[in-house]
Amino acid sequence: MIVATTLAELRSALAPRRDAPIAVVPTMGALHEGHLSLVTAARARAATVVLTIFVNPTQFTEQADLDAYPRALDDDLAKAGAAGVDVVFAPTAAEMYPTGFATTVSIAGPLTETFEGAVRGRAHFDGVATIVSKLLLAVLADTAYFGQKDAQQVAVVRRLVRDLGIPTEIVVVPTSRDDDGLARSSRNVRLTPADRVRALALPRALAAAARAVADGEQDAAALRAIAAHELDAAGLTPDYLAVVDSDGFAELDRLDRDAVLVVAARVGAVRLLDNVVLAPVTVSSDILDDRPVAAPTGSP
Amino acid sequence: MIVATTLAELRSALAPRRDAPIAVVPTMGALHEGHLSLVTAARARAATVVLTIFVNPTQFTEQADLDAYPRALDDDLAKAGAAGVDVVFAPTAAEMYPTGFATTVSIAGPLTETFEGAVRGRAHFDGVATIVSKLLLAVLADTAYFGQKDAQQVAVVRRLVRDLGIPTEIVVVPTSRDDDGLARSSRNVRLTPADRVRALALPRALAAAARAVADGEQDAAALRAIAAHELDAAGLTPDYLAVVDSDGFAELDRLDRDAVLVVAARVGAVRLLDNVVLAPVTVSSDILDDRPVAAPTGSP
Fold this sequence. Notes:
six-stranded parallel β-sheet; 300 residues; 20% strand; homodimer; Pantoate--beta-alanine Ligase, Chain: A,domain 2; alpha/beta; 2 domains
């Protein structure tokens, strides 16, 4: 496995590999099985898998969160090697943001201004969009793998790739969960055992809403109430809990398009995110048969 | 010559040509000999020359300027064909900015906030940076050709390409001038004969300053005064007239690094830009000999 720490080393490592598909898995390190599920998905479609490890300072809007973010490079390299990663790109902040750096990639609108954008501030998704643009352009992979766990980030990445025409296909991999249902996150290591139990109310709330959808519930307020009940019972007050459209993160009243139920809550010292994809309700043939029938032209 | 109007057509046209060097010349059409000098430079280094024609609405901060911008697609295609362009990319605004488009590439600091950024407003260089990013990523050429005439735009493009890591080398071609010295510009067609004569004060002012530099003048205020005298004599009041560093467009007091004397002035109905590159003054051995000599260590 090649470990590149500069853009020049990365380019040299990839130059002889460009005749076959390349995949990239952008991460902030502190690798867990969720990241490794992205590597597994990437390996299935690419001859070369690049894993980037960069704790991007510009997307942290609280210094304390940046300082507390777990870092474990040696451990990460061992895990990446075992998972079959071919090239790790682990640059310094000075390599990614040299003196004179002045460019920001921004996405306007509800997608970046609501939910995580509202809680963390405008700079968060500017930081995400800028670093993802830089990493995708540095690797110029055929495919890039992101986890559904960070649903709003996924939507931001898909938006910027489409808007700027970055020549990499974005592949979204379902959220990886521990056996108890908790979405895997590098931040989970900071949960106390008691908080970890409380945190299970998040996947429970999402599962309850998904079951209600399967049973025919289409009303967003009703779905929120079902999920809120589970959080309440565990004493959790969410930062937000909303049914949004998957692309633009506009809040929905009904499940009339691709939607996601998103939740964020602080559990002890840790802020956790989770979400569940809610398929739009398929219009059944019964309903189609109930449509008013237009009078045939020419009929008496 | 292939004329592509959609990104998909452009990709198809370029796919079979990617085994040899590709060059791109981004333009807003209304082609003149200045653009064709970029094509000539591009042809010297590339097997395939792509010329893009797109009057980018987002970089116009005045609707009247956008409306008045000359458009001559048939004429442009004839000129491009005669100049040996292989592929013209002439998309519609809807192709470049489809519904839902929400991404902006911005460069912070004096580079985009001063001079053209101050006169035209912040949105101007955001529009330039975003469309140039999109066009460069659409073509993914080895080299891209820009004219020195729009010096601040050149600096913005070089900054964003470096910052984002867009894999295209930016080549800057000296300003193309008519026989009388006027910098070629698509806007020149809107000058009345009398205004065209008055406009010659711009290249005269720049040439006077360049002569003064050749004669040893290094003081920015003195150079500005020399140029201002020529503009004054023609009754022109510049929007700005300044000696700036070529990369960051910070105003300089002395020619102590790569510098440009930039000028913008309204002549009749038309706003004209021009500039001259001023090489930094080489420190002569005489001057070096005048430096205070440190007492040798160990001397009495």
